[in-house]
Design goal:
The chain has 332 residues and is mainly alpha-helical. The protein has 14 helices and 2 strands; from the N terminus they run ααααααααββαααααα. 51% of the residues lie in helices and 3% in strands.
Amino acid sequence: MTSSLLTYPEMFQEFKIWGIHTKKKSVLTLTRYKQEIFSFLEFLTQHWGKPIEHTSFQNVTHQDIRSFFAWRMGQGVQKETNAIAFSALKFWFAFLKTKTLVTEIPYEKLKRPKCRTSLPKALSLYQTRRLIKNFYPETIEHTSGCSLEKEPNALSQSSSIPWEDLRDYSLILLLYGAGVRIHEALSLNRSHWPLQDPWLLTIQGKRHTARSIFLLEEVRTAVQSYLTSCPYGYQKDIPLPLFLGTRGKRLQACVLQKRLRFLRSALGLAHHTTPHALRHSFASHLLHQGVDLRDIQTLLGHVSLRSTQQYLHISPQALSSIHKKFHPRSSL
């Protein structure tokens, strides 16, 4: 039995618009929430033995929600996933209250499932250099070495490299060299890319916040080499994405994720070697070089300094070194 509410996509479209423009949630967050809401609706349909209508939510009690999570735990769903579902349903009922479909939110007697805080992991400087150097060893390594220490114009001298490889190489350099999120990079259009000094790139981050980042010369050179080789050009009245797929559409994150999975297996790197790990590495490596935490917060586009602190992989030895190096009384 399927919930009849699933046949009303306009309600979820309104939910998405409300979440983006009123609550400043990202599209990815709302997409994830929608999956958990659908799961809850399907459970309620089975639990009540009848389809769910718009007016049905007024009858949902906290016991129904407890039953939902008890059922999920019996299915082996992890606490972290249940915590996301809890947030999704709480957000959903807040939306329903704005629509006067419920008068009370059945969450007052419930607490969010507790789960372990999983700190993000960064790559070491050695691992990062090794990853970049070997990103495409059969085509790129002999021309530039793919190291951040090589000549920045080496890539532009090679015309034999497939444009898709130049694209992925320039993308991975952008993720690490500027600390951007993968979806931030893939949402860029060519009109966003700076063509002159001061080489500032404006990024639209979470909750519609914008930040400007400086582009390293090697990143600029790699992207320009890719753009020169890319066979797809300008289309009238259509914004052209900066990073394109093989068929000329906006590149999907799974393409780079797949290549990274293959490469980390070939190089024996840890399972957390993902596109997002390059953003963590960007922040951690700057901190280890003595960059102020507030400056890293600005570069990452975090609203809260607490988010930046949780983002960084800091060893006790690194903290001790930074303390001794920069504290004004360390030399007394």
